[in-house]
């Protein structure tokens, strides 16, 4: 597993595409979790980069966070609205770790307020999930081909070109 910084160092192409698409959609991504009956669930989420990590935080008492509390595996996909994928798209896989550190929560809340004006300072966090990455991929389309970049821990990212 890799932290965001470790991932970005090992898979710079995927990290750049993920970061670019994440920013372009106002931080919106789609989170895949596993429901209690084993079926997948897709939910919108706004993951944040904070203290060199990728965090999946949000409104308390949601089904997506109950899913993660029960089974920490996830897939995170940049929101795609362009069927031609001209700007690329990226997916990350991993597991979350629920970090229960009140000082970190308050630093996160202050950073969120400083960046967005959204104020959750002073609130208690039910969950604060740090993403530990186990894989990633990205797609870029151009000049009659599609490049699929793939990364797994311990391996360099590699590109598969489809014509």
Automatic annotation (TrEMBL):
Pfam short name (any one): PNPOx_N
Coiled coil location: none
Keyword annotations from UniProtKB, A to Z: Oxidoreductase
Listed InterPro entries: F420H2_bilvrd_red/Heme_oxyg (IPR052019), Pyridox_Oxase_N (IPR011576), Split_barrel_FMN-bd (IPR012349)
Protein name per the record: Pyridoxamine 5'-phosphate oxidase N-terminal domain-containing protein
GO MF: coenzyme F420 binding; oxidoreductase activity, acting on the CH-CH group of donors
Pyridoxamine 5'-phosphate oxidase N-terminal domain location: 27-108
Keyword Oxidoreductase: yes
The organism's taxonomic lineage, starting at the top: Bacteria, Bacillati, Actinomycetota, Actinomycetes, Mycobacteriales
UniProt source species: Rhodococcus wratislaviensis NBRC 100605
Gene Ontology CC: one annotated term: cytosol
